[in-house]
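Have a think about this chain, tokens included, and walk me through the fold.
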Amino acid sequence: MHSRRIPLAAFAALSAADLTGAILLAPVQLAGRTLLKGSRIDGPLAALLAMAARRGEIAFPLRIAWPEAGDLHEDQAASRLAEAVGGPGLSFRAPRQSRVDLLARWNGVLRVDVAALSSLNRIDPLEVFTLFHGQAVRAGEVVASAKVAPHLLPERLVIEGEAVARAAHPIVDVLPYLPLDVVAIAAEPLESPGLARFDAAARAKTTALGGRFQETIHIAEEENERATAELRDTLTRVVERGVRLLLIGGVSAGDPLAPFYAALDAAGGRVLRHGVPAHPGSMIWLAELHGATLLGLPQCGMFSMATAADLVLPRLFIGEPVTADSLADLGHGGLLGPEMRFRFPAYARDLATPDA
């Protein structure tokens, strides 16, 4: 890039050919029009600028750069960067002043390779910035942007960034919700109003995330062999018919003697995590049974409130294999006060918060 500050008196002496292909490094105010920094100068614009300079319509010297071999314009560089980092779940806006926005193609969960993103952003002057990894997003929402700082830059820097992006492809993506079949099980004594609230909340959250809610099964836990066998048989029957997500209400992560855990063990299942590092909802638990996932809360009523379960549910609905390790990551940003509601799916942003 070759740049110059051109006094107004000298500007009129430049021909259109001299200026064509050059880039404005600062905005220029003309009567009724603003030429933005980064604008390419073509023949007609060169003639317009020369005339404005002769008429005294430009108040300051012009700052202009000419591209050299191997240089890219900012819009071209940002567009290539966006294409390199974005996955199939994203669409792209046209560049505006070297910024290209990446939009979610569908409702789902944002996935960001944070380590690769940091590596790319260490390449001066490339910039890619995003919403939070794991955040629930809606179709059409801007989830990331790609940008470069200079109006002209060496192509080799973009190539270097593209190589980082290819190695981790994609750095940024949105995975769509899957139409999972869901069954809810209330494993605690409930009166009709409480059971209705639990059913309505489980149904609403399932459908909001694109799932197919089948039914709510009410089984009051009793500490006897017959009740344990009944619960074991219910779990087995539900999973055998292809249900891949079970929402369990009324079983505490802090009570290893709860009859539900004996039934789960008898059915061949296992608990993956007792509680999660987030509040409210730190006592939710996660289990696995023959390929199905079980997500539980200690009180059915909490399903109608906003808790850590509403960060875990979207991940389950994109088919992500939620593990003890991925749940451990919830600790960063795990204080889920009202100021953190932006991380939740839309259905949860106005729900009540459980008492501390």
In short: The first strand starts at residue 2 and ends at 6. The chain has a mean pLDDT of 89.
